Amino acid sequence: MFRLVICGLLLAATGIAGRAQQTGTTKTTPAIPLAAQPDYQPSAEKTWDLLHTKIDVRFDYAQRRMPGKVWLTLKPHFYPSKTLTLDAKGMFIHKVALVKPTGMQPLQFNYPDSMQLQILLDKTYQPTDKLTVYVEYTARPDEIKVKGSQAITDAKGLYFINADGKDSTKPIQIWTQGETEATSVWCPIIDKTNQKTTQELSMTVPAKYVTLSNGLLVKQVKNTDGTRTDTWKMDLPHSPYLFFMGVGEYSIVKDKYKNLAVDYYVEPKYASVAKGIFGETPAMMAFFSKLLGVEYPWAKYAQIVGQDYVSGAMENTTSTLHGAGAYQNARQLKDGNSWEIVVAHELFHQWFGDLVTAESWSNLTVNESLADYSEYLWMEYKYGKDRALDYNREAMEGYLAQPGNASKHLVRFQYADKEDMFDGVSYQKGGRILNMLRQYLGDSAFFKGLNVYLTNNKFKNAEAHQLRLAMEEVSGKDLNWFFDQWYFGSGHPKVSLHYQFVDSANMLNVIVEQKQKDKLFYFPIDIDVYTNGKAERSSYWIGKHVSDTIRIAYSTKPTWVNVDPQKLMLWEKDNNLDDAMWLAQMQEGKNYLDKVEALESLAPRWKKEAGYDNALQQLLTDRYYGTRKAALKQLKRGNIKATPASLSLIEKMAATETDLPTRAMALDVLSLQCNAAYETAFTKALQDSSYSVAGAALESLARLDANKAIASAKAQEQDAKGRLKAALQIVDYLKKDTAQASTVLADFKKMAFFEKLQAANGMLYYANRLTDVSNFKKAAGSAIEVYKMLRMDFQGWQTNMLSTLRWMIAVRQQALSNNPNNTLLQEQLKYLQDKTGL
Ligand SMILES: [Zn+2]
């Protein structure tokens, strides 16, 4: 599953999550065995093995119910058994019978809590026996109510979207979401990850709709009542939570990987952009198959987009479901396909999750950490190491942003709710751990290890131990220390790095201090020592010590030192290089993170020196757009002032930069210069089809001339998303009457937090035009309040607001240099500077 983490990050940024954290009760460690602790989550006991599941359903759109029939073929797992318990949530059960060659033999059953169907069989069955049980039922996903369970209301399993067709803006659709244990809302089944079954599913639907399910479409029959029955078949076994049904009016855009069908099910208006969104799928299938040495395991691959989906995306076997966030129009795609990593993530699950499945939710890492890491692998393969490192840091920050994450084990048997396992630990931390493991073992051993893991466990379940055993089998290395620390332990090192040059002895001491309180870590580390632009690498082990000193002899004094040059470590580091070494790192660093870490370290105390400016120009012309963008971001945030030389590079970027969000940022930097000479550049960029570029151009124009921005905005209103939409919101504030400040202010104060967040930048532009000092302070102050809540740079909003504040200050400073006695400007300037510390 791909979870959308935006809300989580934002909550962390605003401190809301921090408060929520504190309301938890304090727990003391009980002196009773782990297994007996009340929140211990054991793996599901296997009493029966599912073998084959045949399902036949119709849909009652009016009542949002689903009448169904299921034939379950099973056998006792090991011990003989006379009873069978199926998960069946909130259904009407009409009939339970044993399928015999002579016909149906009704069976006694009990359904006391509408959660589990208890069936008494006709005799005791041995593990060598096979039987087929038939259940006729009606699923009622919208009526299901279970006492005391909050989660079940979010886990309806079967979703009717706009079933009565009353919402003209939304298509009529049906989709299902099984993970974690919600398939049993629409099909009586043993709804546990450690079951695997082949499947045959027939759906009877209005003939105008298409259907999608697992496996291949093997039969279509037109019925006389205007419906059609589609039968889908999965010949290979998979887990019940991966069952899928999708129904609706879709265009099926066809693609191919080798001789396999690769289909994209999108609403007809998105048919023209389907390949822009999903079109890398065949290349990803080829790449992952080759990398793993295991061909894509299933008979087809389809991706479908569902409205009102409850998560980001879900890897149902052969039939991935994406939320509507996948939809992007052609203009959005020009700024880059924001859904590409989700496509990679869900595809990788077809191996890790679907072919080999986590044996329990406690071991979710063998699904989600691998899927998370596939995003890195795809980035590295398709866009190169710099892009992968950029992504890697973002993911690591995602894990670090949630304070609760550091105390959770990657594999954990204690959790309140299985949904809690889908967090920054199972995903982002796990992905980074795999990256460290890959580095430790080397590429060929690591990927061969994944191959052995998949081959040994295909169509079965696995725990983290199976991954360890596969890696040990291939590499011959003991990995208990690694897994104990990273998989069955929590936290990460928080290191302080210090450097001492002992000139008398030609000796460099690199001191690695572990500052975290709870436990110490043991890990290998590489160090590159640079002398005159040349690096020499050596490798060390950091012990479980509060402080380790690594001694490196030199003949010529090094210019800078690069600890963890591959930037692999999952840690927080306080790197105490001096400025001269940082500058050398910025100039000589080999990868994106070398350069950008140095830039970010020096930016707050940037010196007006040729060396600094040369390094900046080098970054502005770097091979990777992310580096160029990072340099522009420091300029946009006003940490660095552009020199004429760097400014001429930025002017060029504003016209020709190939990565369009980066080009937009070049415009942002130009607009900070308060220079009317750039008006032509802004007006030209306003015509660009990229929302980022057009949006940045409109905001830039608003800084130069509010009336021109208002006049130009009209043509943009028809079609605006993302940055352009944000710029139009600014223009809305430019249009507001400055005589009505108290109303504008009152409206702003009434807004919900997210609404306020989006309006806050516009509010600054409104404040900028107020000539009443008291109103100016109120308006600017209320926006600055929002700005200050964004402690983390969240989706560029904080940077955008910071840039606007810098611009407001610059405008006033410029005006005051011509008219030093303007008391209004003086007071406004003082207020802005006092409030923001800029
Ligand atoms: Zn996932």
Automatic annotation (TrEMBL):
Residues 1-19 form the signal peptide. It comes from the Bacteria. Its EC number is 3.4.11.2. Its cofactor is Zn(2+). GO terms for biological process: peptide catabolic process; proteolysis. GO terms for cellular component: cytoplasm; extracellular space; membrane. This is Aminopeptidase N. It comes from Phnomibacter ginsenosidimutans. The lineage of its organism: Bacteria, Pseudomonadati, Bacteroidota, Chitinophagia, Chitinophagales.
